[in-house]
What we know:
This protein is an alpha+beta fold. It has one domain (3-167): Gcn5-related N-acetyltransferase (GNAT) (Aminopeptidase). It has five helices and eight strands, in the order E-H-H-H-E-E-E-E-H-E-H-E-E. The chain has helices at 13-20, 23-26, 39-47, 98-113, 128-136, and strands spanning 3-7, 50-51, 54-61, 64-77, 80-89, 118-124, 140-151, 154-164. Strands 1, 2, 3, 4, 5, 6, 7 and 8 form an eight-stranded mixed beta sheet that branches. The two termini are 26 Å apart.
Amino acid sequence: MMIELRAVAEDDLPFLGRLTNDPDGAGLHQWYGWHDPHRHRRRWEEDGLLGADGGILLVVRGEERAGFVSWSKAIVTRAGHCWEIGLILAPEFRGRGHGTQAQRLLVRYLFDHSTVHRIQAGTEITNVAEQRALEKAGFTREGVLRGAGFRAGKWHDGVLYSFLRSDLPDPERP
Length: 174
């Protein structure tokens, strides 16, 4: 069964909480400590988690909630921005290629519905599974960001990836 993206519904909010406010749901590389358990609800009530500066879409496989993708505006120059994306899958959906599929779908969605030329994603240098998923989704590894992220009481190195609009396959070519 294929992975799809869809807008977040009100009854999805507890699932988002499980993936962001529970150490087991978030996983090693996404657990940043407990936070306001109502933040997703407030944002959902404000704009359905889909705003001009970013958003969240649910990753589903049929009727099953598999995770979510997110994007936010990253200012790159005074004249423009790119999207920075993220992904969290529920533990029972990890390691099966769903992250790669979800990232491909999000790239297509963002290029189809915005004028940005660049989408970027970062992950910790020890998150080899996410690096593989990004590379399989067509992202290019740009380099190591030393001491870029704070998690679990210390600073961690990260890896930055990008996907440019010009990296999309040409639909005119066989």
